[in-house]
């Protein structure tokens, strides 16, 4: 006999309560993944463990193996430094995401046999460092997967509790890390040196003059500047910097990086100094499937009502989920679940409305049934 959403309430809540007590950082989610795998095996799923170190997948097949709908949940926690102490916290809601996925798995375990396809669950490590999705893709977890669904709890100002959005649109992002090489000199004879602080100051000013479309969601911000460690009367010859760069599209991000590179070269030339830098790979912007977005919209309307559908949400945050569709041909969508997250994501005191997990279970389960009911 199939279980109801209401019958899942205690299971989902208790699962989240347990996972919240065992936060584990990227690629070290051993207790978390062991617990998740045990739950899935008890439900009757075909489970594979130790993918990309700690990843887990689980699959059940209905009347046919294809099409296959996959649901992805992240598992890792945030690493906080508080009062010079390193602390692990589930302050991004990954405990809730994993609990929601387990709730969907339990809800679908009997229903799948009446559907024309299969359902797969991907429990991914290391989202917070942007490495997990790439590692799981390289391990082949999307082979044979036609549709991929992701989701995230949101704050009240983006998507209030009781509401959901069919698409959360993240920014593309990267970091630029650099070093300044000038020339040391006596503080009383600055004309004989090349002051790394002057170069850094010019670089900040010059970068801030770069023009870009304000509607593109582009943001270029220096987040680290360092120079000078010796005596106060010595011109520093060495400095370092770091920039956080974001944009609403992958193409726009590439264009902004090209402008930054030109400005770095110009600044080095101005001071007769040398600037070395590297652009570190960040995360891409999404490539969503329009039909999947409509599937999500129908599910939200059915479960929560048309008045509780929030238009697609643009956020400056990044998400490595989008590597899945960039590295493969899978059709993907990523939903926003209204949960009144407070004070905010990545805050060590973060809380949320627990019932939001059940909204996720019900809406995403309906999406699976929509996608696998054709021809059944």
Question: Can you put this structure into words, describing what you see?
Answer:
The chain has 376 residues and is an alpha/beta fold. The protein folds into 2 domains: 5-170 and 286-372, 3-Layer(aba) Sandwich (Aminopeptidase); 172-283, 2-Layer Sandwich (Alpha-Beta Plaits), CATH 3.30.70.360. The protein is built from 9 helices and 17 strands. The strands form 5 sheets. A 7-stranded mixed beta sheet has the order 1-2-6-3-7-17-8, with helices on both faces. A 4-stranded antiparallel beta sheet has the order 12-14-10-15. Strands 4-5 form a two-stranded antiparallel ribbon. The protein starts with a helix and ends with a helix. This is Peptidase M20 dimerisation domain-containing protein. InterPro entries: Amidohydrolase, Bact_exopeptidase_dim_dom, Peptidase_M20, Peptidase_M20_dimer.
Compile the SSE list and pairings.
Elements: H1 5-20, H2 30-43, E1 46-51, E2 55-61, E3 68-74, E4 78-82, E5 85-89, H3 94-108, E6 118-124, H4 132-138, E7 147-155, E8 164-165, E9 168-169, E10 172-181, E11 185-186, H5 196-207, E12 219-227, E13 234-235, E14 238-247, H6 250-271, E15 274-283, H7 290-304, E16 313-314, H8 322-327, E17 331-341, H9 355-372
Parallel strand pairs: 3-6, 3-7, 7-17, 9-16
Antiparallel strand pairs: 1-2, 2-6, 4-5, 8-17, 10-14, 10-15, 11-13, 12-14
């Amino acid at each position: 006999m199939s279980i109801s959403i209401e019958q899942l309430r205690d299971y989902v809540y208790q699962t989240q309560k347990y996972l919240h007590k065992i936060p584990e950082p990227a690629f070290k989610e051993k207790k978390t993944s062991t617990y998740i795998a045990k739950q899935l095996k008890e439900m009757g799923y075909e489970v594979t463990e130790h993918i990309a170190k700690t990843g887990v997948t689980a699959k059940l097949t209905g009347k046919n193996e294809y099409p296959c709908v996959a649901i992805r949940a992240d598992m890792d926690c945030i690493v906080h430094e508080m009062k010079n102490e390193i602390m692990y916290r589930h302050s991004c809601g990954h405990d809730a995401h994993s609990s929601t996925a387990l709730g969907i798995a339990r809800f679908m375990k009997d229903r799948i046999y009446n559907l024309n396809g299969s359902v797969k669950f991907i429990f991914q490590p290391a989202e917070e460092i942007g490495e997990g999705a790439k590692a799981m893709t390289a391990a082949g977890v999307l082979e044979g997967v036609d549709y991929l669904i992701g989701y995230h709890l949101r704050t009240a100002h983006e998507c209030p509790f009781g509401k959901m959005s069919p698409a959360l649109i993240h920014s593309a992002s990267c970091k630029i890390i650099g070093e300044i090489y000038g020339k040391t000199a006596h503080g009383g004879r600055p004309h004989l040196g090349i002051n790394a602080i002057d170069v850094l100051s010019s670089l900040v000013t010059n970068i801030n003059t770069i023009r870009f479309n304000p509607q593109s969601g582009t943001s270029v911000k220096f987040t680290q500047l360092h120079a000078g460690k010796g005596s106060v009367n010595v011109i520093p010859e060495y400095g370092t910097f770091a920039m956080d760069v974001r944009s609403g599209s992958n193409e726009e991000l590439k264009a902004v990086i090209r402008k930054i590179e030109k400005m770095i070269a110009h600044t080095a030339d101005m001071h007769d100094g040398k600037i070395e830098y590297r652009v570190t790979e960040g995360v891409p912007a999404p490539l969503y499937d329009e039909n999947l977005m409509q599937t999500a919209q129908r599910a939200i309307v059915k479960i929560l009502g048309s008045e509780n559908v929030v238009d697609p949400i643009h956020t400056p945050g990044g998400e490595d989920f989008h590597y899945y569709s960039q590295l493969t041909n899978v059709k993907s969508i990523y939903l926003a679940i209204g949960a009144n997250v407070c004070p905010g994501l990545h805050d060590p005191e973060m809380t949320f409305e627990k019932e939001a997990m059940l909204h996720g279970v019900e809406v995403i389960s309906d999406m699976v049934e929509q996608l696998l009911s054709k021809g059944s």
